[in-house]
Structure formats: structure tokens, C-alpha cells
User: What shape does this take?
Amino acid sequence: MNEATPHAPSSTRVESIFTQSTPGVMGLSLPPIGVATKPTSEWLPEKFHRKQAPRLPEVAQLDVVRHFVNLSQLNHAIDKAFYPLGSCTMKYNPKICDVYGNQEGLTQLHPMTPDHLSQGALKVMYTLQQYLSDISGFYATSLQPAAGAQGEWVGMRIIKAYFEHTGQNQRTQVIIPDSAHGTNPASAAMCGFDVVEIKSKDNGLVDVEALKHLLSDKTAALMLTNPSTVGLFERDILEITTLVHDAGGLLYYDGANLNAVLGQAQPAQMGFDVMHINTHKTFATPHGGGGPGSGPVAVTEKLAPFLPKPLAAYDGEHYYLDYDRPLSIGKVKAFWGNFEMMARALIYILAYGADGLKQVSSDAVLNANYLKVLLSEHYQVAFDQVCKHEFILTNEKQRGVDPHLNTMAIVKRLMDFGYHPPTVYFPLIVREAMMIEPTETESKETLDKFAQAMIQIAKECAETPGLILNAPYTTPVQKVDEVLAARKPDLNYFKSA
Amino acid sequence: MTTPFNFLPHTDADREAMLRVIGASSQAELFSDIPTSLRENIRYCTLPESGLSELELQQHLKDWAKENTGASYASFLGGGAYHRFIPPVVNTIAGRSEFYTAYTPYQPEISQGTLQYTYEFQTMICELTGMDVANASVYDGGSAVTEAALMAIRSTKGNTVLAADSINPEYRAVLETYLNTLEGITLKAFNLESLPQVLASYDPKQLAAIVVQQPNYFGCVEALDTVREYCQAQKTFFIVAAEPFSLALLEAPGHYGADVVVGDIQPLGNNLSFGGPYGGYMATKEKHMRQLPGRLVGRTLDKNQRPCYTLTLQTREQHIKRERATSNICTNQALNILKATVYLTLVGPSGLRYLSDLSAQRAHWLSEQLSAINGVSLLFPEKPFLNEFSVQLPVPAELALHALEKASILGGIALARFYPDKPNSLLISCTEMTPPDQLKRYVDVLKNLLDKPNKVQPKNTTGGSKSLLNTL
Assistant: This one.
């Protein structure tokens, strides 16, 4: 792979499905109606009738298959090659979890099936609630939130409900580090809180002195990611949580980086009051092209009454959905949550057990530190100390050669070596960040090869910067004009010029 | 650590070699920045200590499936989640590693597969709904309704949202949770029959949106002229929740004035899976495009002027705008919309219409047969319906469900669950998955139960279900 040089794109584009349409063709055989029929107009008045059929494609089954198989081949994916997208925990999810899809007793179970006929599903939910409470150290867990961001909203909503319940409506401020994921301030704002940003110190961690100045009787909560978004554990975490509690506030733990501390430390014991868990990062939800996710929320005993309802419960004989929760914030999702993700997460946890989960975080952190050392001579390391599951490089060495060698240009070249680029320009507090998260499922050989590619790119930056600036060369399409896309939005085939 | 975990590739020799490169003596040393008090006090109550083999895990999945006895019953359950045939092509495609193990298409050069199907999905949703622009999905129908209401509040600066009491109660519950959180925003339920009087009591400037569902939760197709006229005159958002199959038969809401059309794509090739993951769709007019939450995929050109696709208009989103974003949404339902896109491509316009008609024909046949039984009638006899309808029974709905259950039939949703004033009513859904022999069995069981009145025990049995009333 090291000899990657410019050559023609390896694949051609796939025609739009709408240009492949032939009237009268269909990709599916249809069952007979089987009962005496009546003309539509007898049971549906004319004024409700659809006048024009939707212009859906009309394509034979084999051509449907080819269209989507050809499209799939334009994607990079973990099952093809390394995908070190920082903050997204792109680990290999065991295929055993996919056995879910073959079980009609799970896939065909309607959410309104009575409790006594869905005991298996309720047992999965109940058991997972317990395991996630265990892993996080919290008292109770709701599996309802559909994704991390919804989990954040639920967590903040619970905090709001708690302060309303205890007559502390003046607590309207949520303190959030400038290094946080964008979803943090967005979720807090959607809950009606005022967001107060706290600047990070030069080492990327919370400035405890600045925090002391921001805390007041208006403080509702501090939202924190730990390890932080720069991949470092907050050494002062116990002092921070004590300070916030002393000021009467609560602490929200963003579980995005939970993979780094599985079995090493429990967020509840750090002093947090509520957290969300991204099962699509840590616990085997298929990454799926960006979803679905699942964002369970775990809380302390004091906040448990406010969790969304229903919770899965067990009376010693039967599992059931417990709606008898008068202080609950209500429902945030139709039905009970993303059940398939719950079953997969439970299988994943059972596959590893407590010992295995600790080995997961140990190896995730080992891989990150190893790769960081391999690359530290060739790229500037933003925070030069032992990292947790991810680390940040910058282009400081490269931009000295050519100011056009920005981070995006550098990582685009990685595609020619068969890799997905790291996360770039996040967190915002690091200039020209490249955030690399190898995860625990990558072998030493994979990391070595990736390091060789990165070192080769560093060499090209120094010797042939032009080669970098025009990359990638071997991808299905080359540099994409995102400015044009935003200036003249073309979002619909039939509205397209 | 010597126990091998088959998903972790390192040997102990690898780990030692890597530690030497790092200059650390042990893996534990890499965690020395975590206070000792935290590291040494990990407490678990129920978590098993060690892992299981793949063989044992597979058995767990099979056991859980088996314990869900209701999954193999003939099912007339609907209410926002539908038994539909999933053509094998759908899961063959959705199970492809290149789709299944990719993530958000942040790097368009190596994500054209995800980007193009998302663009095709957006187009198909626009075609179904009669709208200009659709996003790349939100979590489910409930979040789509909620995000549409939030869009309306942002756009109109109104402080009140009126939601029909006939929208899916599961969606209404989500809408309530979100809107009741916002200072100064009021959510009000209304009955469509008395809408004119309700509207008369509001200053039009207050009203951000009117939310309706077509067909409504009871299965009824509603006349929405009053809503349309009011919204057009007053610039109030006209939000319509619509089940995708219904759009093959019913006029597209975009063609009768809707501002936002929302719903759930689950019936299009997605598993029921006890409630999720599904996918919320949202479609709107071009003028509201920049108020849409979530991801949007646009067509553009690469540097060689070749057409291609990319995420676009990202300045609406949380990773750029943070607390001023249109929504906090980040993860969407990418894999679920892939299934919907493959499904819609397979069935095409005529297949979708055929299946929608088939389901409605069966529902009408069943409703007629049931109405012929002593004491059974349609709950809303004057309203048209498609594949879902509500009946009024001479006994508590739970009693009928219990009798049907004994014949391995899930007979529908007892409306009392959400509407305590309707103890004897049942919501029944038909699709291609309820073949004629099941319809006949359904009729026979109810005939047997109701045509012999002396057999009826007129008490409210729960059939083992813990939660009947007050479930929201």
C-alpha cells in the first residue's frame, strides 16, 4: 500500500435509481387479496383519492439488487479496513449479535403484544437495565432514548424535573466545556437551559479555578465527557464533582467515551448523577451508515423517579412494563426504545463478561497509546501524555512546509491507502485537530501498517506537497464540491435542474 | 490477562511488545491518571464475571425469541407499527458489510453508497408526500411529529400547538414530553369535530401549528378542509402525520396544503422488533428547508465535474451551531431508511398501491363480517377507513382479546389503554400478513363468544396484562 500513487478512479458511479425505471416493471411478486373486493370508490369518497401516483422507481428484482450492491461498493466500512474515526468508537461488533435477525420471535414481535406473551423481550430489557446500571455504577437505567443525543436531552430533562420538584426553579444554567460535543449545548438548550461555556485549560481539561467562578445558585448542572473529548481523563474529577455538588448543582456524564473506562472506573463513583450510554459506540449496535443508535440513561437513586416511563420490571415471576411512575418525565419515544439494539448490547455484554469488558478498555487504551507513540515523531501530538482511548494530532509540522497542508488535505490522502480518515477539526479547542481512535478490536499488525501509511504521508507532505493537495486519487469520486452543494441545494431528484 | 477473547486480537506477547514501545510496564499503568479510589472500588451486583462462547450466546437469542410466544400468533395489531412482509432482498442488502459497518458519511469520497441511497430516499419520501424536501430521517414517528412542531414554533414564533386527540397516543406522549419542557409553549389537544369553536378562542398569531393524523389513530380518514383553510389564511403550520402505505391511496398531503408531512417508515421493510429501531420521516416545502432538523444529502460535483453526493446545509446542525442548532439530533436511522429505500424500489408505485388496496379490502371484509355479529358495530360508522378500523363490542375489549388469544390470535389494541372512555373498543389492523383464513378464524372466535350471550362474563379481565389504563 505504501506505493499508492495517482491513478484513475477505481470505480465508476452508479446511475440514479430513477433513471433505471421502466413503467410496468416490479421487483416483487404479490399475494392474492383472497376476499371479495369492492371498487375503491365504494369505501373511499372520491375527494380523498390520490390523483397522481408517486414516481417511485419501477425496476426488476435483479436490477434492484445490482443497484444497491453497486452502491454498497462505493462505501468504506469497518469490515473492509481500519476506520479510526475519533469519538465514534468504530470497533468490530461481533457477528454473533447479528443472529438476532434470524429470530422471528424477536424481529416479528409487535410492541403492543401483551406482557405475558413477550416475556423474552421484557427479560432482555430488564436484564440489560441491570447490567448497564452495574457497569455505570448507577441505581437505575432507562433504555428508551433512541440515541445519544436523545439520552442527553432526557438526562437534562431529568435534572430540570428534579429541580422543579425540589423548588429550585432558579437553577437555569448548564455549564459545558468548550471542548464538548455539539450535541451537549444543543440538548441543554432544547431543555430550556441557558448554556454557560467554560474554557478548557491548555492541557484540554476543565479549569477548576474558572469553574469555581461560574458556580452559583443558578447552576443546574455541569455536563462533562470523561475521558474528555481530547482523550484525557479528568484527573481532578473528584474535586470537580464535589465543587458542583457543594454549589447545589448536579453532574451529567456524556457516555460517548465510556469505552475507555469500562471496568476501570464507574461514572457514578466519580460523583456523576446521570449519564447516557451510546450503545452504538460501546455495545455492538451496527454503525449502520450513521444509525440507528440507542442512548440508555442511568441515574442515581434520587433521580430514578424521574426516568422516562415505562421501565421493564420483574415481580419475581413475570416481567412487565411498569407505568406506575408518577414523577416520570414521560415518554420520549413511541413504544419502549430500540429493542434490537438492547438485545445486541446484552449479547455483547454476555460475550465479554466483567473481565472481558475490562480487557476491552485496557486494549482500547493500549492501542491508542501505541499508535500515538508510533506517530509522535512525524506529527505534532496535541497533548503529549498518556492518553485514554483516543489522541489528537495536528498539522503543525506540515503547515510549516506549505500553509495549504491543512488537516483535511492530509487526511484525504489516507483514502488512497485504503483507510478512513480520522475525525477532523474536532474538538474545536485544538487548531487543526486529527482525532484518532483505533479501538480495541484492531491488531498490532493493522496499527503498524496504518502508522506506515501516516508516516509515508508525512514524508509526502515534506517532499511533494502537491501530491497531498490533490488527493484522493483512487476513490470512486474525487474531491467533492461541498460549497456548491450548500449554495445550490439539490436534495430531490425530481426538483433537480 | 490470559483468557482469550475471540473478538480481541492481541496475544499477551503483542501486548508486551506494545507496552515496551510505549514505555509502560503494564496496561494498568496506562490508567494511573484515574484516582486509585475509583479504580479499586468497582462494584457490580449482577454482571457476570466471565464471557460466554458464541454457541451459548446463540442459544440465549433463541431462548429469548421462544419466550416471546406472541410473535408467532396471527396478529391484527397495528397502531403505528405494522406486520408487513419483508422481501428477502431488503435484508440481503441491509446486511451488506459496506452499508452495515460504515458510519455517518462524513467523507463523501468514500461514502457515495450511503449518500446516494439517502438522496434516493429523500426523493421517494417527497414523491409519497407531495413535498419538495425530505430529511435523512429522525428517530421515529413520534420524534418526527415533535420535531415538526418545534420547526413550526421556530418559524412562526407562535407559542401554541394544537394536536388532534386522534393522533397516535404514542406520538402525542412524546410531543407532550418535549413541548411541556419549553417555557411559554402550550400544547392543546382538540377534537376535529369542534375545531372551528377551538380556533375561535385563539389569536391566530399564537398558533404555531395544527397537528393531525391521516388516517387517524382509529383508522378513520378525516376531512381536513377546516384545518387547511385556517392554516393557509393564518400562516399556521399544517402538520400531517401519515402512514406510508396510506399515501398510495390517499391524496398526498403536500397536494392539499400541508407544511410538514411526517410519519414512520417502519412498515417499509423494517422489522417490528418490539418497537424499534424504526425511522421518522419529515418532508416539507422548499421555503421551510432551512428549518429542517437532521441530516440532508445533496447532489453536487467532484473536482472532475462528475456528479456525486454529500451531506449539506450542515450549518443547521449541532456540530456547527451548538446551542443554536435546529435540533440536537446527530444519529439518525440510516440503516432503517436503507431498508425503506430498497423496499420502495422493489414494490414501486403499483406494488405499493396494490398492497395498500389489498389491506384495505381485507379490512373492509373483516369489518363487515364482524359488524354482522350480535352487538358489534364500527366505532365511527360514518367515516371511511383503509386497512385499520375501530369496532365497538358489547363486552369489554379485553374479554374479546382474551378469547382470541386462546385461538392464538392477537386481536388488536384495546383502545381503553389510551382512551379510558372506550372500554369496549378495539383497533384492528389488516395487511398482507393477515390472510383470509386468519380473518375467518377471527370472525369465528368472536361469533362464538358473542352470539352465545349466556357464555359472556361481563367483567374486565386483563388477560395477564399488567397495564391497561393510564399507560401514558
In short: The radius of gyration of chain B is 26 Å. Residues 458-472 of chain B have pLDDT under 50 and may be disordered.
